[in-house]
Amino acid sequence: MSSTLNGQLLGRTHYATRAVLERELTRLGLTFGQSLLLNMLAAADGPVPRAEAARQLTDALKLSPAAAHTTLAELVAATLVAPMTQDASRVTVTPAGRQSQRLVAAATGEIGKRLWAGLAAEDLAAAARVLDAVRRRAEASLASAA
Predict the structure, then answer these.
(1) Which residues contact 21 (CB under 8 A, 6 or more apart)?
(2) What's this model's pTM, rounded to 2 decimal places?
(3) How far from 121 is each of 25, 45, 87, 133, CA to CA, in Å?
(4) Digits of tens for pLDDT over the chain (146 positions)?
(5) CA 92, CA 82: separation in Å to the nearest integer?
(6) Could you tell me how many helices (H) and strands (E) the chain has, helices first?
(7) How far apart are the C-alpha atoms of 102 and 113, rounded to whole Å?
(8) I need a labelling partner for 130 at 20 to 30 A (CA). Which of 29, 49, 74, 109 fits?
């Protein structure tokens, strides 16, 4: 049986793979949004302004700025992220946050290996190009409607 590449297939694939990840994130005590923000902050070269952290999460998950700030506050409350002592408008990942982020990265890597195993490199490259093009078009459409 062949599948047609369309929004329904993309959505079902996203939700299925995300559900696999969320099962592991639940075990780690994190939500999907928290893990994404934790990854973003851990990848930063240093402390990040709260507004910038929220903007990045808003852009990534297409959620409201208020929801992104709530997710950041949850990470602060969990002591995975902390405001800078000298400038509370900037946040950084704590040692506990770095450990959680490493566990998330390991889980994500294992899940990815398992789900993508056996697929040809050329197929993966073509899929990446197509998905990136569709994502860019959708983001441009959202930006033009704003």
Answers:
(1) 32, 35, 107, 108, 111
(2) 0.86
(3) 28, 31, 46, 18
(4) 578 888 899 899 999 999 999 999 999 999 999 999 999 999 999 999 999 999 999 999 999 999 999 999 999 999 999 999 999 999 999 999 999 999 999 999 999 999 999 999 999 999 999 999 998 999 899 889 87
(5) 6
(6) 6, 3
(7) 16
(8) 109
Give the C-alpha separation, 29 to 34, whole Å.
10
Domains of the chain: 7-118 (1.10.10.10)
Token pair listed for 95:
């040692």
As a dihedral over the C-alpha atoms of residue 53, residue 56, residue 59, residue 62, rounded to 10 degrees, the angle is -40
